[in-house]
């Protein structure tokens, strides 16, 4: 099936071949789709006509677990008032304010990242999160990196097979 026609036209041809009595297995092999897809296309064609064969969005119709916009705005406002608060503290504050359902700390963290209130900082193999603009965290990260570097240097200078001390 290497031609350049639209997918709706290909689906229509496949459905027409099915309706003309062609074996479903042969049609599915020819169009490189599953038999289930052919049956689904035929059902849509019978119910909706050509419009039923158009490509459809896979996006869900609703997201019942999605965080309300008002809660996301409150998280951002609290973070702006208290830049030192992390996701766990913000969840505690949301609970004090009676927010139901209460988002998890990982959800609050994703809100902070999405709104660029937290920046991801990589250091070597491990990564950690540091508040954007928090100089203390950057200094600590630099000190930790220096300790790792010096430790590696001392390990490489140590004798490989020390002699027994007794």
UniProtKB/TrEMBL annotation:
Q: Name one Pfam family in it.
A: HTH_32
Instruction: State the protein's name.
Output: Helix-turn-helix domain-containing protein
């Amino acid at each position: 099936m290497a031609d350049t026609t639209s997918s709706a036209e290909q689906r229509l041809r496949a459905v027409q071949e099915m309706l003309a009595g062609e074996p479903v297995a042969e049609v599915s092999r020819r169009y490189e789709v599953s038999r289930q897809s052919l049956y689904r296309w035929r059902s849509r064609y019978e119910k909706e006509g050509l419009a039923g064969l158009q490509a459809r969005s896979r996006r869900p119709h609703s997201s019942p677990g999605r965080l309300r916009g008002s809660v996301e705005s409150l998280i951002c406002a609290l973070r702006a008032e208290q830049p030192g608060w992390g996701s766990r503290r913000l969840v505690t504050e949301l609970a004090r304010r009676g927010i139901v359902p209460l988002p998890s700390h990982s959800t609050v963290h994703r809100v902070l990242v999405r709104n660029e209130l937290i920046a991801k900082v990589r250091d070597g193999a491990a990564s950690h999160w540091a508040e954007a603009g928090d100089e203390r965290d950057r200094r600590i990260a630099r000190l930790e990196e220096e300790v790792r570097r010096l430790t590696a240097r001392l390990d490489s200078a140590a004798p490989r097979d020390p002699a027994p001390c007794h």
